[in-house]
Fold this sequence. Notes:
alpha+beta, seven-stranded mixed β-sheet, 6 helices, about 25% helix, elongated
Amino acid sequence: MKKFIALLSILILTGCGLPDSIDTGGSSGQIPVEVLSVIDGDTIRILYEGKETPVRYLLIDTPETNHPRFGEQPLGKEATEENRRLIESGDVSIEFDVGDRLDDYGRLLAYLYVDGESVQQQLLETGHARVAYVFPPNTRYLEDFKEAEQSAKEQELGIWQYENYATERGFDNDAVEEDEKSEIGPGSGECDIKGNINRKGAKIYHMPGSSSYEQTNPEEWFCSEQEALENGFRSSGQ
């Protein structure tokens, strides 16, 4: 044990043997980097210190394009494309915070800039991202990011156009499906024909204004009578 402590002391004094995952030598300086590829809305791959390295954006989260359980999430592709547009629009640099520089997957954790402008803040302002993964002490721009997020919320931009889609736990695909369903029906001006299956299994469609329309709970919605007929439904007037 004494030998181990002595060896550890030597390593610390010589600056060796300390893993990058607990590097707290944060810097407010921006380091120019070469971008090799854009992976998704909040991750890119760069050339850093001569090595090809993935970078995860600090303090934000965007919908996935290849989620292990849900596959491509709503607006995931749009977030990726917006990230790519920003990254390819100028010179890219990264900035570390004072805490860990690596996450559990070995990705660099950093703030991203293009021509000196924050990529994270722009993704938040346009509603492509939410504030997330807040792990002190890597919180240098947390308040600025929250303000950008709040502005997008108030304007119902991007992920905020769907109620309850962006949550503290991530993105809820079901919320988007429910929101889109609620936009279809009476008052939408289109797709307001109700398709109902009765107890005998008969498929019947009900037109707006018909006697049974209001009390009918639809299993399906149709945009035209032709669409209802093609799906095996008959008119309630028959």
